[in-house]
Structure formats: structure tokens, C-alpha cells
Amino acid sequence: MTRQPRAFRLDAPDVKSGSVVVTEEPFDAIEAADGTVVPMGERRRAPWLGILLSALSGLLVLGLGLAVENLIRDLYAVAPWLGWVALGLSVLALTAFLAVIGREVSGIMREQKIEKLREAAADALAVKDHKAAKAVVSDLLGLYNARAGAVKGSARLMASMEEIIDADDRLAIAERELLAPLDVQAKRAIAGAAKQVSLVTAVSPRAIVDVAFVIFAAVRLLRTLARIYGGRPGLFGFLRLAKAAFNHLAVTGGVAVGDSLMQQVLGLGLAARISAKLGEGVLNGLMTARFGLAALAVCRPLPFIREDPPKIGDVAGELVSRAEAAAQ
Amino acid sequence: MSVITNLASRAGSAAQSLWEASGQLVQPSLRIGVTGLARSGKTVFTTALVHHLTRGTSLTAFRASAEGRIRRAHLAHQPDDAIPRFPYEEHMEALMLERRWPQSTDRISELRVDIEYERKSGWRAGPASVALDIVDYPGEWLLDLALLDASYAEWSKQTVEGSRRRDRTPLAGPWHDFLKTIDPAGAADEVLAGKASNAFKAYLNRLRAGDEAVATTPPGRFLMPGDLAGSPALTFAPLDLPDGQAIAPGTFAALMERRFEAYKTHVVRPFFRDHFQRIDRQIVLVDVLAAIDAGPVALAELEDALDQVLMAFRIGRNTLLSRLFSPRADRVLFAATKADHIHHTDHDRLDAILRFLVNRAARRTEAAGARVGTVALASVRATRETTIREGRETLRAVAGVPEAGERVGDEIFDGETEAAIFPGELPESAEAVFQGAVPPGSLRFPRFRPPKLPVDAAGRMGKLPHIRLDRALEFLLGDRLA
Quick check: A306 contacting B, CB < 8 Å? Predict the structure, then answer.
């Protein structure tokens, strides 16, 4: 049934008498419905520090090269076979070094690709750009088509490639088919890490052990999440990711607190009343979970489009409920 | 002959492009073309755009603005002295003080806004400026560009055949009758030329007033003559020429042909050379709602018109060489205007219909490497959104002040009372519109008066509300302010 156009004067008697109720909706509902977009990278400054470090490390490598060369020459002087062995070793070391560098570079490039994807997706969403959305989806397919678990999803996604659909629908389909299963894994990983941290903190004898374990768990969690979403961070890639995650945490921390502050405080208060140690455990677990969520946001190749972004309750709800159970 | 003029004009335009490219080094500038068929909201769009830039409104989706990197934007002296200035202040006054929509323009106009901003990235961080040239011109002129490649005989044939389509015959009747009395091989008679031209113009006018609501038959300048009205270059008409016969010199047809060529030389080509081919980014405003309201024929005509409009563009990704010698428009945005006439839950449908209309055109453009976007926007938002509950029925509607004389159902408005209007429901898919899913009268989009702006304690006027103008801006110039 189509409804006919109607007009209601706001000063008409039936509006005034209340038999027709006209309610104003919020003025910014449209902007809210369009959705604000994604965590964006901050302003970049000219990379002088990076240049300084690169130059210094270049010098260091040159110095090392010279030292090694001298060493080999000395060894030759002592006995030729020693020289050959040293030469062989240094060639081996060089190869391994190059391989490590290669792995780092490819890891970082992969990360950058994921970041670019996320930004491109945000751009495509902002202006409903079809071509860009398509490109993002095909890049996503390229990222995940080697996965055993993604075969069905990517087949379904391929089938929708040629259809004429909205840019955001297209991305939402990609999100549902490819990322939703990964989101589940990621949430599980975060919940696991949070639980582990809270347990270890609760039973550990020394504060230093807590700190060490929290850091260790965070590092492991970040690597796991990156791997789940297709990144393969080496050392430098990992540092980049960690920085991004902390930045993101700093930006969104307030919001994350907002949605579940009561829960956190309540859980903590109850647990702390039972035992200080237990309270600390819950607190550390919550911190890990928060960090995990930030890490998830920077590892995920798309912003959350139609899927609900995980909240602290999803990954740390168990901690709080367990603490409450313990309190009773 | 034409080969030589063609070559010469190309060399000329390449030289011009090179000159401008070198100017870019001193003062970077970006030329944005604002166009659309009559009554699509070009003037209001341009006014609102300048208003938000110069007032420094924080626009959420326009990244440079949301990140606070725009320091200042102000009106500046325009680069082309021969083009009328866009009367921004006048339009602003009409909008804000008198609360009426600005007078529509039927000619080209230009305005320059200097934007001082903070660069975002990398090596060249720090302050920078870009000059934004906004060129506003009627979309009908674009249809003329198709004439550049046509001869008089071809154009005549095409136009006469087009007018013989079944749905147009009632409109074209008087002109056809007159056409029969003309002998193309007769003497070149000035009075007859005037009469023929007037009969043809009358036909064009009826076309535009008719169901189709958009004029897609060139020449566009016939309906919007500007200061050329009455000149020989605008006094011609297509003739019913016999097939396969050359036009003999000295005949009436020869006179018409000469004037057709004059139209091309004096009207179309200068526009193409001086304005059109220098545009970097283009926004095409489309009044989709009016076309849906008018029915499938109007919608089909609109689709054709948009297709032709896009054909006219020199579109594609710029390479280093093309940037120097023959720059292309690398982004084209189609915008469905007047989105404030419907509730935002229907905006997606509006957007989908627009996308369906430009789909053919967009594919071609994308193949050339340019980016095409669509958006449903309202340059000036004249309504608020409301929910109406009557008994058990709930309607999502918009509320505003309909203009005097507008009528919905049996209400006729006086231009002062506020009313909540439920405009009807847009069809779910665009294809459905063509299949007649919108029976006449099932939609009604009354014109609203511009919104009443709040005045703060210091007596300053508030800012004009808008819908998704920021997204349009981000698409058009976001990358240049990075």
C-alpha cells in the first residue's frame, strides 16, 4: 500500500488538540544516520627523527662492515683456512640479515596495505564511491583468498561483485563474508588474554611479575590479532602497530569508558572488597581487554560498517561476572 | 578548412593549458564547475558553498574543515575579467533576510575563494593556500557541445526526427505545420528566418513546459539567450531537408547553415574553450524528485540528458603530460538536490535512483579513469524532520514553511504557516519508477521557503543548515587540501 502525500498545518485544530501528534526529530539525525567515520591517522610531521636514525644506523653498518673486513684480513694473515671460514660465516650472516630485513619490510608493507584499505573504505563510504568500494573489496579478496576458512565467503562475495549495489552495501557484504568470522576469533583471543591476565595477577606473588605478564600478554595479543586479520608483523611492524594501537586507545579511551564505566567500577569495587589482589586482577584484565579492542581497530582492514564493534562487555564481561560471583 | 581551424584551436588550447599549468606553480588553483539543468539548484548550491567556506563552518565530513586545518577562506578577485561575477552577497541577502530563494541565473558566472589551510602530510607541512574558482553555468549549454561535431544537415535531420516521436507530436504540431510551408531551396529571406526561428523556439519552450520538464534538444542558448538575443547567430532553425542533396548556395537552407555555423563559432566554441575545458572538478546537480514526480518519460529524458552532459566532458585521470597540455576533469559528482524535501530514511532510495539514472554515464567515465560519485544533498536545508502520529498510523515527514500558493491535497499554503508534509513514499528501486510504480499524484514535493535562521545575542545571523554539502565538498576538493 502506498500512502498518499499529506500535509498537516502545525496550527491546525487537530494538531493542537492532540489527535494528531507531530514530534520533532533531532536536527542532526541525518548526520548521525550517515555515521561518522573511522579512526584516522594523525597529522604526520616531516620524518627528521627517522632520517637521523637511518643515517646513524647506516654509519653503524659501514663501521661493522669495516670491522668485519679487518677481522677477516687478520684471520687470513694467521691462517688462510680461518679466513675462509670467517668469510663463509659473514656471507651467511649477511644473507640472514637480508632475509630478516626482507621479512620486516614485507610485514610493514602488508600492514600499510591494511591501513590503506581501511582508509580507502572510509573514503568510499563517505562519498559512496562505487569504483573505490569495488577496488577495496577486490583487495580484501586478495588478502584473504588463501585462507581455508574464507573459501565459501569469498565465493559468495565474488558472486556479488558484478551486481549493481550501493557502495556501503558492497562493503558490508565483504565485511560480513570475510571479516565477521575473524571478528569472532579476535574477540575470543582478547577475552582469553584478559582472563589469563586477571588470573595471573590474582595469584602472582610479586608486582613485578604482574607487570611483566601484562606486557607479555599485550604483546602476544597484538601479534595474534594482527595474524588473525592477515598482518605478519616483524619487530618494526609490531612497534608501528603498537604505537597505532596506543594512539587509538588514547583517542577512543574516553568513549570506551563511557559505554561501560558503571560495569567496570561496579565489578572492580565488588572484587576489591573481597580481596585487593582479585580487584587488581580484574583491573588488569579490563586494561588488557581495552588494549585488545584498540589493537583490533587498528588491525582490522575495514572500519565497522554494519557489524557491531565489540564492546568491553563482549570481551571482558566474564571477568566482571566472575568477580561478582566471587563476591557473593 | 575545418581541419586547419580544428588544429589551430587545439594548438591554442594546448598553449593556454600550458600557460595555466605554469601559473599553478605560483598560485595553485582549482576550478570547480557547478552545473545542472534549469531549476536544479545551482545558484543555491554555489551560495551555500561559499557561505560555509567563508564563514568557517565546521563541516563534519569535509576532513580539512573537521580537522580544523582551514585557517581562513575569503572572496578574492576573480581571474577572468570578462565573466560576470557570481552575485554572492545579493543571493545571501535574499536567502537570509528576505527568506526567499535567489533569482535563478541563466548565464555563466564565476567567483574566486582563496582558502588558506594547513597542509596535513609529510614533507611540505605548514600553511598553504589554494584559489578555488567556482564557475556556475547552465547545464543546457553542455548539450550544445554535441553540436561541435555535427553538420547543419545532420543536426536538422536529428532534430526534426526527434520532434516526430509519437509523444512529442502534439507539442511539435504548430512547428511542423510551419515547417511544411518553408522551401529550403527558396530565396534567403530574413523575415522568414525570424519566423522559422520563432516557431522552433516556441516548440522548444513547449517541450520544456511539457511532461519532460527538461530541455535536451540543443541549441541550449535558444531558451536562455542572455545578451545574444536577436542576433543572427541565434536566428536559425532546423529544416526538413531532402535526403542526400547538397545545400545550394544562395538558398534559404544555405542561410540557415551559415547561421548554424556562426552559432557554433561565436557561442559554443568560445564557451568550450574559455570555460568548459578548464574545469578540474565538476558537480552536476540533478532535481531527481521533480523528475520522479513528472513520471517515467521525464525520467528517461533526464537520463538521456545526463548521459549527453557527461559525454561532453574531457574526463579521465590526469597524466603528467595531459596536466600540462590538456587537463581533464578527474572527478565528477552527481548530486540529487532538495533532499530536505523527504525524510532521511528515504535518502538512500533517492541516491539509488540517481545512481540508476547516471549508471550508463558513470561506467563510461570510470572506464576513462575519473572518479564518479553520487550524493543526495540539500544545499540549504529548509525543513526539519518530524514524526506524525495519527491514530495508529505513523508517518515520517518533514516540516517547514511551504511557499505561498503551494498546495498539498486540499491545503493551500500562504507562505507563513508551518506545516508538516508527508511527501509520499519513494519507490524501493529505480527500475520500478520506469515500470510506472509511481502513479501520478502519489508524490508531492511542495517548495519550502528558506529556513528562518536564529540570530544570536550579538545580532549575528546563524549559519545555513545543509544536508551532506560537506560530503560533496570532501569529494570535490578534499584531496587538494590534504
Answer: no
